[in-house]
Structures are given as C-alpha cells and as structure tokens.
Design a protein that fits this description.
The chain is an alpha+beta fold. The protein is 35% helix and 24% strand. The chain has a domain of 116 residues: Beta-Lactamase (2-Layer Sandwich), CATH 3.30.450.40. The chain has a six-stranded antiparallel beta sheet, with helices on both faces.
Length: 168
C-alpha cells in the first residue's frame, strides 16, 4: 500500500491535520502488529509535517523505553515523572512545551530540540506509551497540534489495542 502524506500544498494547519487523519486511518486499519503500526505512524507524521523528531516511547514497568521513531539518535529509557515524556505519562495528559529549556527536568536527547509535544497513548485507563514530537524551532506546537495529534493517537489506540475500525 502506497500512501502519500506530503501536503506542502495545504497551508492551513487544521486542514493539514484533517487530511492527514483521513489518510492515516486507512493506513493502519486492520493491522495489529504494534511495532509495524507505530513505525508507519512515525513515517506518516514525518512525511506529512516534516517534524524534526517523531517517535514513540513504550511503557515497561516504571520507565518508558524507546520504540519506533524518525529522526536523530534518541534516549533509550525515561523514568516515570522525568522530562516531558515521563511527566506526560505520569499525568496521563498531553503536554505542549514551547521552550524545552524552561521545562523542569527536561531530558535533552538532542541539543537541537527547542519545543515539544507529548501525547500519551491511553488504553482502558492505562498508558501504553507516548507519542513524542520535537521541533528545532521554539513554540512550534499549539492547541491545534494537541487536538489533532490526540485524535491520531485515539485512532491508533482503537485500531492497535482495541481492534476496532478507525473513526475520524
């Protein structure tokens, strides 16, 4: 299956996300292999939005372990409550950080990262992992990113862990 996620012709951020979600749901529909789906999710997000770094950290016991990603070398493990990823996991909520240098306990996997958004992947009240997206620009993420990335993660969770047909 070849999917084309590049959308340079769409300038409105919300429209870009809406187009992405329409293409994303069929991409993962019916696939249940976690690593495969997470890998293609990273590739699709990177292609559609050109993010500096996009990837998943998966919850294992008391830490997040690096999963599929697109971008430069990353940290292998993050403790619950540490850094942006660990804090989003602990709070079970999306965090939008306009300036990572101002975030208490920020873990700098790359010195080029300037802003970040982390969306927990929650299934039946349990965090399975987090979607972590970094930008090399300050204040790159906002409420629009939060809204649509949370939708993408819900589609992902429904397809991958609940084996339901994605809805957008």
């Amino acid at each position: 299956m070849e999917a084309k996620f590049k959308q340079d012709h769409i300038t409105d951020k919300a429209e870009r996300y809406k187009t992405f979600l329409r293409q994303f749901a069929p991409l993962i529909e019916g696939e249940t292999h976690e690593i495969s789906v997470l890998a293609n999710t990273c590739a699709a997000l990177k292609e559609a939005f050109g993010f500096f770094w996009v990837g998943f950290y998966l919850a294992e016991n008391d830490e997040l372990v690096l999963g599929p990603f697109q971008g430069s070398v990353a940290c292998y493990r993050i403790k619950k409550g540490r850094g942006v990823c660990g804090t989003a996991w602990e709070r079970m909520q999306t965090l939008v950080v306009p300036d990572v240098e101002q975030f208490p306990g920020h873990i700098a996997c790359s010195s080029l990262s300037r802003s970040e958004i982390v969306v927990p992947l929650i299934v039946q009240g349990e965090v399975k992992g987090v979607l972590d997206i970094d930008s090399d620009l300050p204040a790159a993420f906002d409420e629009t990113d939060k809204l649509y990335l949370e939708q993408a993660v819900r589609i992902l969770a429904g397809t991958l862990y609940n084996h339901s047909k994605p809805s957008i």
